[in-house]
Design a protein that fits this description.
Blueprint: E1 2-6, E2 14-18, H1 26-34, E3 43-47, H2 53-58, E4 65-70, H3 73-85, E5 92-96, H4 99-105, E6 110-115, H5 132-138, H6 145-155, E7 156-167, H7 171-180, E8 183-192, E9 201-208, E10 215-216, E11 220-221, H8 231-236
Parallel strand pairs: 3-4, 3-6, 4-5, 6-7, 8-10, 8-11
Antiparallel strand pairs: 1-2, 7-9, 8-9
Length: 242
Amino acid sequence: MERLNDVLGYKNLKIYQNSDYFSFSLDSIILANYANVRLRDKQIVDFCTGNAVIPLILSRRTKAKIYGIEIQNKLAELARKSVEYNKLNDQIEIVNEDIKDFSKKYISKFDLVLCNPPYFKINERSSLNESYEKKIARHEIAINLQDVCDCAKKVLKDNGNLCLVHRSDRLMEILEVLRKNNLEPKKIKFVYENINKESTLVLIEAQKLGKVGLKVDKPLILYELDGKLTEEYGRLQKEVLG
């Protein structure tokens, strides 16, 4: 069922969703706020954009042109409806295409790439009851980690940045694949539900042809032990006026 929702923490920003497809997640909101958008960044692309929550949030932070790439046609249609509803057609363009095909046509065009990719390898945590549309969003069926990094390497300008959110337990693999594609890890931030839980998510920023040197940011802890939002997570849910 299709519905029009608020984007968490953002006043006057609406997004179309459909319960038959994978809805935007907390991960995407954290990624959109974590990404370092530089003043000189003029062209930004969000791989696996889904219904375009990341481009919508970034529009509050930058005047740069933003592309959202989505392989699923119906999700791309929802994304376009959200862009039109928020009157952002001049800034955000939704492309219904495989990122592997898109990257062949836009060599060294972008200053920043973002991606909240499928987290799970094929057959890992799979559910027989899940629709194909939801499986393709969660599992490495259409693309995998290597594909994401290879495509980012192609479309990024030299010294352009890739910003990813992914599973913490795949960190070593992620770092290896980034370096294999000449994307030097520059920053890492672990995300915790609370201080007594293990980290399940990690945010990573890498730079194309960047110099060696990794900064580990302080962790993002979402909730206090009493269930209240932490101060930092609370700030992420407030509108960024940019």
